[in-house]
Structure formats: C-alpha cells, structure tokens
Amino acid sequence: MSNKWKNGLMLLAVVLLCVLPLLLVEGEFGGADDAAEGVITELNPDYKPWFKPLAELPGETESMLFALQAAIGAGVIGYTLGLLKGKQGGTKQNSSK
Amino acid sequence: MKKRSFWSFAALVAGFTVYFMLNEPGTARAMHIMEGFLPVGWAVFWWAAFIPFFVLGIIRLRAMTRENPELKLLLGLAGAFTFVLSALKMPSVTGSSSHPTGTGLGAVMLGPLPMGVIGSIVLLFQAVLLAHGGITTLGANAFSMAVAGPFAGYAVYKLMMKLPEREKLALFCAAAVADLSTYVVTSFQLAVAFPAADGGVLASFLKFGGIFAVTQIPLAVSEGLLTVLLWNWLKSYSPNELSLLKRKVNGGRA
Predict the structure, then answer these.
(1) In which pathway does it act (chain A) (predicted)?
(2) Quick check: B161 pLDDT over 90?
(3) Between A and B, how many CB-CB pairs are < 8 A?
(4) Which of B3, B37, B93 should one mutate to test binding to chain A, selecting the residue with the greatest count of A CBs within 10 A?
C-alpha cells in the first residue's frame, strides 16, 4: 500500500472518530471542562472561583479566535512543508514510496 | 509529486473544514482547568512545579538553536502543530468535547524540554485571548500539557524505538500517550485539590478521570494518526532535515 493510501486512510479514521460520536452518542457535546466544573461544585459546594477570566468574549468571537489559532498554525505548517519541499529542489521524485 | 502533494494538502484542508463545521462550539470553554477553579495554594504549587521546566526549556532551546540554526524551522513546525491541534475541539464518545494537545510530535522531534516553552505559549494565548484555561491555573495546565505530556510521550517513543522497524508505531503511541497523559494529570491535579468527602482523592480522581481522560481516548487516537500523517509528509519532503534531527537531538543514532 502506498503512502498516499495510508495517509488517506488515516485521515478518514480521524474524521470517523469525530463523526461517529456525534451520530451515535446522545449528548450536548459541551466542553469537558464545564462538566468538571459541575463535579467540583458537587464535591465542594462551598467552593467559589476566586479569580475571573480577564475578558469573557461572546461565543461567536471566541470561535473566530479558535479558528484563527488553527489558521495561523496551519499557515506555518504549510509554509514549512513548502520550504522544505522547495529546498529539496530538483532532487527527486519518488523518495516517498 | 506536485499533484500528489496538492491533493494531500487539499485533503488536510477538507478534513479540518469538516471538523469546524461539526464543531459548533456549544459552550464557551473546553478543556484545561478553568480560571479560578484551583484553590490558591494549589495554583501556586503548580506554578512553582512548572517554572523550573520552563527555565530548563529556554536554556535547551537556546543551546539547540545556537548549534543548529536549521532547527528553528522544525521548532516553528512543532509549535504550529500544537497551535492547530489545541484549537480543534472534537466531539467524543462521552458526549462532551475536548481538544488534542499536539505536543507529542515536538517532543519526539526536539525532546521534551523545548515543548515546555512551546506548549506554555499556546496555553497563554488561549488563557488571555480565549478565556480558555486561565492565568491563575496556567501553572497547573502548563505542567500537565507542556511538561508531563511531552515527557510521557518522549519516554514511550524511546522505549518503542528499541523495537526494530517500528518508527511510525512508536510515533503514534508517543503522540497518543502525550495527549492522554496530559488529561490524566489534569484529573489528578483536580482530584488532589478537591478530594471527595467519602473516598478521598482516589474517588474524585476517578470522577475527574471519567470526564477528562475517557473523553480524551478517541482524541488521543486522532492525534496519533495526525502526527504520523505530518511525519510522513515531512519525511517525503525532507529526509535530510529529519536525520539531522536524530543526530543532534537524540544523541547518536535513534
């Protein structure tokens, strides 16, 4: 099996790992830390958070920032791979089999 | 070759797009210990535990980049990978969402210490801009994600590389273990801070573990796969860079 196929299958597996829970599990899919917050309150009902986040952004803005974070990272990865590939120059084609 | 890499890149973009479409963030925050949710004593304790690793990491980074300026590129790559993966909040089997850490790749390529610096930069970004995690809990979160995870992953990689011809499997396991152990440590940190009334630390460890660690299992597998994927590309584009790494970082042949 070529690397190309293996890579494709791995991507597919990742997507499935993500999609299957959505389809098969009934849940809110809230953040796991919010669930933990619930447990803390249950274990120690008197506990009060003693420090507040500096800024609480609206959900939409926050998802934009998360997307931005991923975009910056993906950009750098793309740049690096491109640079490495370019450096490799005319040296050869099927080094990857 | 050109065409192939175009398609694999397109596949990556499509894969991430699918994630984002599926991942409408329902709740504001996900993962990491939330701001203010660690008692003062523990917050200080984990900061104190984390700082020496951060300092060692900086020293290590400086030495590495002075000896080998070419490593900066791979350093950027490791950082970027952590950046991307920790932004992906994926749904999981427990019905809640979490995100991978992306620290395994860097730990294997560069050693665990530099990841202490890279990981904490990512956490700081999230704590300040995204109200995700927090400043007071940054010490604890950095200890789990940027110190414990990379060290665990690196140890697994080293052990598995003793087996012949198992590089990719070793990488997969290293990434998955780095990911999973991060959240096991998080559960432990919460458990010692909030022992259950009956059953004590162990009972609450199981409880927090049930939330964080179990949610994380499929994500750890995803992270392992994505790490091997990137490794494959790196390898086909730049076999020289990677062998340089092995000589310089791992000391001798890996």
Answers:
(1) Cofactor biosynthesis; adenosylcobalamin biosynthesis
(2) no
(3) 244
(4) B37
